Amino acid sequence: MSVQIGSIIKKVMEDKKISPSELASKLSVHPGSISRIFNYKHMHSSLLQKISQATGHDFFKYFSQDIRVEKSDVEKQIDQIKKEIEQLRKENGYLKQINELLTKQNKT
């Protein structure tokens, strides 16, 4: 998925009611530079970070949605162990209930 970052910045600014001149002031750039940003398809990460800070909006999230990172073998093992621990906890709960029932039955 291709991200049109300039149009996203423009929409966020409109939603937050941030004028181009206000953003230009926060970035210490000429107001005409902001209108050019709206046409950007790509942007250097340092500029995007400054715009994110100036607008209070994380523009990096639009790029990270499509990133699929393969889990390492250790992470996969940890996930498996977590599942096994959860299953053991359930089984332990069942055994406690059975033990309580047997204890009650022996008392009667």
How does this model look, in words?
The protein is mainly α and about 110 residues long. The chain folds into 2 domains: about 5-65, lambda repressor-like DNA-binding domains (434 Repressor (Amino-terminal Domain)), CATH 1.10.260.40; about 70-108. Helices cover about 70% and strands about 0% of the residues. It contains 6 helices and no strands. The chain has helices spanning about 5-15, 20-25, 30-35, 45-55, 60-65, 75-105. Helix 2 (about 20-25) packs across helix 3. The longest helix is centred in the last third of the chain and has 35 residues, at about 75-105. It is elongated. The mean pLDDT is about 90.
In short:
The chain is built from six helices and no strands. The chain has helices at 5-15, 20-27, 31-37, 45-55, 61-64, 73-107.
Parts with pLDDT < 50 across at least 5 consecutive residues: none
Q: Structural class of the secondary structure composition? A: mainly alpha
Question: Helix count, per DSSP?
Answer: 6
Task: Using the coordinates shown, work out and report the CATH topology of the largest domain.
Answer: 434 Repressor (Amino-terminal Domain)
Task: List its traits.
mainly alpha; 434 Repressor (Amino-terminal Domain); 2 domains; 108 residues; elongated
